[in-house]
Amino acid sequence: MQNEKDLLICPRCFMLHKKRSLAKQDEARCQRCGKVLMRSVNALEWRVLAFSISGIVFLLLALLFPLVDIDLGGIRSSLNMVDAIMKLWENGELFIALFAFLVLILFPLLFVGSLLMVSIAMIFKRKRLARDLLIFATTLSHWSMLDIFFVSILVALVKIYEYAQIRFDSAFIALALFILIEIYLSKYIRLEWYWERWEQL
Amino acid sequence: MSYIRCNFCGATNLRSRKRCRRCGMGVEIKAKKSLQTAFAFLIAAVIFYIPANIYPILETTKFGKRQASTIVEGVIAMYQAGDYPVAFIIFVASILIPFVKIAALFYIIFSLWHNRCKRLEQKVWLYHLIELTGPWSLIDVFVVVILVALIHFKNIAIIPGIGATSFALMVVLTMLSALAIDVRILGERCER
User: If you ran DSSP here, which 8-state letter would residue B135 be given?
Assistant: First the structure.
């Protein structure tokens, strides 16, 4: 019988594979369904450290500064995420306000924040701490929805572009960059591979 | 198969283990519990699906004149205004995906419950498609959030309707239902 650590089960078609060591930039795919099973990421923890720090900076910028300014026949207004959620709360839309706060502010911050801590814990070889943080990050990974919010901004602007002049503000770019970083950190590098790396510590 | 994949961290475990050797989460397949939980969430989602489509998602007051529009009316308005690409996005995200998702979840839960092994690969593919596209239905809810924040002038006021809350709840409930389904049941019972 093989050691469990050397085996890999395809998440899509459940075929059992034997792990192989990968060269730089290599990918391993499932024999049956072609799903990417492993990807070699050089110095994973240092990459994650760098990307998650910049992710948090961009996210804070995106949260604190206006995303879009509109001019509706001389009356100006701007979209700021924190203000938008506060306004919903004041209007008595408690559920939507709370939901938006969780999936647009708290969970993205905690998710990228916990990946930052994971990378630090892995660099200092604190295995126990890294494991607990990875469990936290894995749980949160489904509930960060800023990418959906980004598309929603574009859709909302299409609804009003006939009446209003629209100008994208600085935070819009910060939000776009944060989303790219989040995709890199959680889709390009799958969370499974953090666990693989953790095992090798 | 004498090995099992941990749903949480993806580690390969010996069948005899109760907890994952890597992340410590439970790795046993609890088919009955998983399907019942998923079914309960799905029924709750169906209940919220009704007000989500009947009640307005957005209420606009222009110079004292109130106008409310449901999701379907919103798509029709966009189509009539000639914004075809956006009408298409909203149609797919808020009408097509939720409907297909609920139907697909019923199908998957039902066929797992009855141990149907036909079209196994398609079912797994369908499950992953649901998981991937599910949260994108929230576009409409976020659009409401954005419009409420952007448009607050003396004569024009926009407020979210009951439909928006129900719709958001419906989407979250279908996500929870999909998360509750243990896809390994498919591989487990039907492995040749």
Answer: G
How many Cα atoms sit within 13 Å of A185 on the Cβ side? Answer: 32
B149: tokens are 């924040």
Cα separation, A56 vs A62, whole angstroms = 10
What is the DSSP pairing of strand A165-168 with strand A68-72?
antiparallel
Which value does ipTM take for this structure?
Answer: 0.89
Provide the residue ranges of all domains of chain B, joining segments of one domain with +. 30-190
The dihedral built from the CA positions of residue B82, B86, B88 and B92, taken in this order, carries a sign that is: negative
Assigned token pair, A89? 């709360």
Can you say whether residue A151 is alpha, beta or left, with left for phi > 0 and alpha for psi between -120 and 50 degrees? alpha
CA distances from B132 to A4, A96, B89 (A): 29, 22, 16
Nearest to B47 by CA among B162, B165, B170, B180: B170
Residues 6+ apart with CB under 8 A from B121: A13, A33
> Residues of A with CB below 8 A from B11's CB?
4, 195, 199
CB contact under 8 A, B83 and A158: yes
Tell me the pLDDT tens digit for each residue of A110-156.
999 999 999 999 999 999 999 999 999 999 998 999 999 999 999 88
Contacting A residues, span 9-38, partner chain B, CB-CB under 8 Å = 9, 11-14, 16, 33
- Chain B: give the shortest CA distance to residue A24, in Å: 22
Residue in this structure with the two tokens 């369904």, named with its chain if needed: A33
Q: In A, which residues are within 8 Å of B164 by CB distance?
A: 93, 96
What are the start-end ranges of the E strands in chain A?
Answer: 7-9, 16-18, 27-29, 36-39, 68-72, 75-79, 165-168
Nearest Cα neighbor of A59 from A77, A78, A82, A79 is A82
